[in-house]
């Protein structure tokens, strides 16, 4: 029988579950990160302002409310020491609410959704769903403001069709037509019905939650979110389950590692450290706030300016830097052994995973793999290696994108998990502490 985790071993995983429960959308995730950075004494910057950065300073900046970069400047000159950077993404695949989503059909009111990324759609069926995201409103002064909204209570549902009308569901799998069969049930269309009445009722619902008049609600970006909180499970509670483990677990681990280094920073750490959390990874990263945009390059240019680096020294800074792309990895599933490369079965609670792909779907090479393995050794945590089956298409990450745009060495890593892209994912409770320790060692190097 496995050994039960101690309270100290369980604490990082519990904090992760609390972090995810407070972050039902990418915009909430960034707000949760900002609150933790504020509490740690980090100074918020605005991209539209002029910056005055100081050695020993701790700063963060957001873009689009769903992407964030936080960094601390060490005493060592950037041109000589470079930076250690960790990247992750704040978005998860799922269902996004359309701009005019509400409609009435035979007395039932529904909310139209669009598929975002590649979720396992069947996992949304028969779940208690809420709504979360951001709305833009007009305030009392006539200014446009962004506000977070969250319906944490069960609000929406995607009921399954009874097996009596879908006799082949257990043989053929549960499938939904993305246009006709995914609208979520909201309620009964009391009184007036039709597109205008449905739209007015939905707007009134959002306006009330945002605390504004209906006429001051201008636009929204909303996700259908799980209302079930994260939990430990297993005979010894050695596993965790929650939504958005991919990839809020990596964001939490990177942020925890950055904040864990505050004692060294207060003592005058030599090394500069940076964490970058991007939106839109699940749909290709090609956006102003995505890893394919200019966010991290713009920030690095401003760091270089703060130390008056010329063009050559800026390139020296990048050449001496390392980017760690942290995204979750595929854990070996005992019920589906043929889905995995036989020589690369990574195990839950077996430690962080270095991800390899010869076709550069992951950015790892021999040098960067060795460097991350050394971080794990220094942290006293186990390390695993993953390669995808050669006859299956391999997913990708922000690692190759950032490495190519910046021209810096990069490694792709992550913790093993089951049911990636499900509404309810699972991972190892012990692994999360392992990853924080390894990333802490990387940022301290």
Describe the protein.
The chain has helices at residues 7-21, 26-39, 78-81, 169-172, 195-210, 245-260, 262-266, 295-306, 311-319, 366-379, 398-406, 429-444, and strands at 43-45, 58-63, 67-72, 83-89, 94-105, 108-116, 129-138, 144-156, 184-188, 217-226, 231-233, 239-242, 272-278, 322-326, 329-330, 353-356, 384-387, 410-414, 416-418, 425-428. With 445 residues, it is α/β, with parallel strands linked by helices. The longest helix is centred in the middle third of the chain and has 16 residues, at 195-210. It has twelve helices and 20 strands.
Helix and strand composition category: alpha/beta
Count, helices: 12
Order of strands, widest sheet = 1-2-3-13-4-14-18-16-17
What is the residue-mean pLDDT, rounded to a whole number?
96
**What fraction of the residues are assigned to beta strands by DSSP?**
25-35%
The helicity comes to 25-40%
Q: Which regions contain 5 or more consecutive residues with pLDDT less than 50?
A: none
The major beta sheet can be summarized as: 9 strands, mixed
Q: Termini, distance in Å?
A: 37 Å
Total strand segments: 20
Rounded to an integer, what's the Rg over CA atoms?
23 Å
Shape: globular
């Amino acid at each position: 029988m496995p050994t039960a985790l101690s309270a100290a071993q369980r604490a990082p995983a519990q904090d992760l579950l609390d972090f995810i429960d407070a972050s039902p959308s990418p915009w909430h995730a960034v707000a949760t990160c900002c609150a933790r950075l504020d509490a740690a004494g980090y100074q918020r910057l605005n991209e539209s302002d002029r910056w005055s950065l100081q050695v020993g300073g701790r700063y963060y900046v957001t873009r689009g409310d769903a992407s964030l970069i936080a960094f601390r400047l060490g005493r060592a000159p950037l041109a000589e020491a470079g930076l250690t950077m960790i990247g992750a993404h704040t978005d998860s695949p799922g269902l996004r609410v359309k701009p005019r989503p509400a409609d009435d059909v035979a007395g039932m009111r529904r909310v139209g959704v669009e598929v975002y990324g590649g979720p396992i759609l069947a996992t949304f069926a028969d779940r208690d769903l809420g709504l979360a995201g951001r709305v833009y409103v007009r305030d009392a002064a006539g200014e446009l403001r962004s506000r977070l909204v969250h319906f944490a209570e069960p609000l929406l549902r995607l009921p399954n069709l009874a097996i009596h009308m879908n006799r082949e569901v257990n043989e053929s799998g549960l499938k939904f037509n993305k246009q006709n069969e995914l609208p979520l049930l909201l309620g009964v269309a009391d009184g007036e019905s039709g597109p205008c009445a449905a739209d007015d009722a939905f707007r009134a619902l959002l306006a009330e939650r945002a605390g504004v008049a209906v006429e001051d609600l201008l636009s929204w970006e909303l996700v259908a979110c799980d209302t079930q909180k994260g939990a430990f499970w297993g005979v010894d509670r050695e596993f965790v389950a929650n939504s958005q483990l991919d990839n809020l677990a990596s964001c939490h681990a990177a942020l925890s590692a950055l904040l864990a280094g505050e004692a060294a920073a207060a003592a005058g750490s030599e090394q500069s450290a940076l964490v970058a959390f991007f939106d839109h990874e699940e749909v290709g990263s090609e956006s102003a706030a995505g890893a394919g945009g200019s966010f991290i390059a713009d920030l690095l240019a401003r760091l270089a300016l703060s130390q008056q680096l010329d063009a050559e020294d800026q390139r020296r800074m990048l050449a001496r830097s390392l980017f760690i792309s942290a995204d979750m990895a595929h854990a070996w599933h005992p019920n589906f052994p043929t889905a995995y490369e036989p020589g690369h079965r990574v195990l839950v609670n077996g430690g962080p995973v270095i991800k390899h792909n010869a076709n550069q779907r992951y950015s790892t090479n021999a040098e960067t793999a060795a460097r991350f393995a050394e971080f794990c050794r220094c942290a006293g945590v186990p390390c695993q290696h993953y390669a995808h089956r050669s006859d299956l298409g391999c997913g990708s990450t922000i690692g190759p994108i950032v490495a190519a745009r910046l021209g810096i060495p990069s490694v792709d890593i992550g913790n093993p998990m089951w049911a990636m892209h499900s509404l309810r994912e699972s991972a190892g409770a012990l692994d999360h502490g392992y990853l924080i320790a390894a990333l802490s060692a990387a940022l301290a190097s």
